[in-house]
Design a protein that fits this description.
By secondary structure, this protein is mainly β. Helices cover about 0% and strands about 50% of the residues. A hairpin with a 6-residue loop joins strand 1 and strand 2 (about 15-20). The radius of gyration is 11 Å and the shape is globular.
Length: about 60
């Protein structure tokens, strides 16, 4: 079973659940918000125990 991470959409503020492919290692991709459908940049890193940490930001954020 793939791990999940709950994050807050940078646009609408709703909490959404991301399913993380832990076989791919660190990742950087775009996923649409499940609530408002706007594109979110997702950056996934794994801690020393292999637990995924996700950072999300909107298109207009650096």
């Amino acid at each position: 079973m793939l791990p999940t991470v709950d994050v807050q959409c940078p646009y609408c503020g709703e909490t959404i659940t991301l399913v993380i492919d832990d076989s791919a290692g660190s990742q950087n991709y775009i996923e649409d918000c499940q609530v408002c459908c706007r594109p979110i940049t997702v950056v996934v890193e794994f801690d020393e125990d292999g637990v995924p940490q996700a950072d999300v930001r909107g298109e207009d954020e650096a």
